[in-house]
Design brief:
It is a single chain. By secondary structure, this protein is mostly helical. It has helices at 10-17, 30-34, 43-57, 61-68, 72-85, 105-117, 123-134, 140-153. Helix 3 packs across helix 5.
Amino acid sequence: MTKEKPHHTKNESLKRSGTLNPRPDEVGDPLFQEHDFFDPSDVVQVKYEMLRRVLTEGASITETTDTFGYSRPSFYKARQDFEDEGLVGLIPRRRGPRSAHKLTDEIMDFLEQELASDLAPSVETLVERVRTHFGLSIHRRSVERALQRRKRKHQ
């Protein structure tokens, strides 16, 4: 007996992959309105068609970006990403740091020791102790999130 894979809609798959267009209703291009093949929810497909329209058909950047729901700077970024990486370059990337890069294992161990040796120090106290001991300025919210992540990890 084989296990059935759970059925997921295309939008669920796009969301999981980070390619779900957050503003599909802003895509006003007739192809995306009239043909099922063109999906305004697929951000990669929308960006590719926007680039294709300008680069191969010679359409106006301003008119095309308006029609596809993007700004001119977004068009130029998409064009550069496509030129550098091809289709993969059109896949959105998370912005900002990918992890708690300041809160190393050494600092997290220090924080846990501080938590264990004191009667529930405040997050502000922990931030100040890190600043004093390591010479590092860390936002209190970063400390809170890192401690929550580590707690979940050790459960």
